[in-house]
Automatic annotation (TrEMBL), chains A, B:
It comes from Streptomyces dengpaensis. The keyword Transcription applies. Residues 12-72 form the HTH tetR-type domain. Pfam families: TetR_C_46, TetR_N. This is TetR/AcrR family transcriptional regulator. Residues 35-54 bind DNA. Keywords: DNA-binding, Transcription, Transcription regulation. InterPro entries: DesT_TetR_C, Homeodomain-like_sf, HTH-type_TetR-like_transc_reg, HTH_TetR. PANTHER family: HTH-TYPE TRANSCRIPTIONAL REGULATOR RUTR, TRANSCRIPTIONAL REGULATORY PROTEIN (PROBABLY TETR-FAMILY)-RELATED.
């Protein structure tokens, strides 16, 4: 839906337009290299108008853009609680990685820190997204009261996904998104299985999750590929 | 070795003494809450003397303390290239986690970012430690030219270890250090094995590493604990 040039935008529409212009600039350049003039130009408005909406200047605009991106990111995680867990995770990761792909430099700058616009507030926004991601995963695992080991496993995997996303952007988005997604799903399966070895709650979660898998699913494919690599380890048992 | 009170410290000794006082304060409080007066008091010297050694004030002192901690941390990774890899990793993690334990709040503040004393220089110091850790691991895996998937696996695990360390400090250092260490070793084994499923180089590394393991080692213990959890998955094959 395009907005006719002669119609005045509502306050909310204007605000959204400025945030989108800012987000697309932050996706191409680190925050330090984006000025309010750039944002005004990209949105086709005057600099004073940008200041009218964001009197706190670039810092306020950056935080508002970040909040809007965080909301969008949290929507990536929503997934109906049906079918094999690896398939649900795979779909959520598809959306998450598309988000990383789109926001690119802005995503890196934010997670890598050290940016002049990074504050305890921006850190809190990012941590909120991490917490939301962990909650979604634990909900899908149908765990009401996650113990420390299961929570640590999930949080470690989320951090590892962030690290992988940054490396992926650094590597010119190689391997292709679908390959990275499958590999991240497999890493999650491996992390959970290893934790299950020491934690009865995680073991129950893994057994329940395995019961939902099919011979065509991600776990079956992983198992078929892993067996030849570890067959020699049988001598250790 | 204690320094007699009447002997004047050499420049290098004094500098070291001030850095140690700073590091122990940063271990108890976030950098924002440590003043140069606190450092002077902890070291039993005057504030002007602290300024003489660190004319750049707290920022310079913080960066120097960080550099000194980074060197200490990198020494944790040194391990002779002998015996099962899980045992070498376990010993290095023992030293790393003792470092985390000792530096406590300062370690958290640094990795969590958002601190007023965090700059691109401090971020570069921390990244240097991460790169050193990755290099040590790849050396032990005897990989001359690591491909993208093996590198990504190693870097993801390093990030996951950092996340686990922060969670561990947050959780009042529970579980006990030795338990966390064993679990992190197992997570590394799991991550490598899962990557081996898709990457021939990682598969070779895993096979070579398994050949060094014994029936009393970490991999054997992990395998014995994991098998009962995943036995139902045999139907997927």
């Amino acid at each position: 839906m395009t907005t006719p040039a002669y119609r005045r935008l509502s306050v909310e529409e204007r605000r959204r337009q400025l945030l989108e212009a800012a987000l697309s600039l932050f996706a191409q350049r680190v925050p330090e290299e984006v000025s309010l003039d750039d944002v005004a130009e990209a949105a086709g408005v005057s600099r004073p108008l940008v200041y009218r909406y964001f009197p706190g200047g670039k810092q306020q605009l950056y935080e508002a853009a970040l909040r809007s991106a965080a909301e969008e990111l949290e929507q990536c995680f929503a997934e109906p609680p049906e079918g094999p867990l690896t398939l649900r995770l795979s779909r959520a990761l598809d959306r998450y990685l598309a988000f990383v792909d789109e926001h690119d430099a802005g995503f890196s700058a934010l997670l890598q820190g050290g940016s002049v616009v990074e504050t305890s507030r921006t850190t809190a926004i990012v941590d909120g997204v991490r917490r939301a991601a962990a909650k979604h995963i634990l909900d899908h695992l149908a765990v009401r009261d996650p113990g420390p080991r299961l929570r640590m496993t999930v949080r470690m995997w989320i951090t590892a996904v962030e690290a992988a996303s940054l490396i992926w952007l650094d590597n010119g988005k190689e391997p292709p998104l679908a390959e990275l997604r499958d590999w991240l799903v497999e890493q999650f399966v491996a992390a959970l299985v290893a934790s299950a070895a020491r934690d009865p709650q995680t073991a129950r979660v893994v057994k329940a999750a395995l019961a939902l898998e099919t011979g065509e699913g991600a776990v079956a494919a992983l198992a078929r590929r892993v067996l030849p690599v570890i067959e020699d380890a049988a001598r250790l048992l």
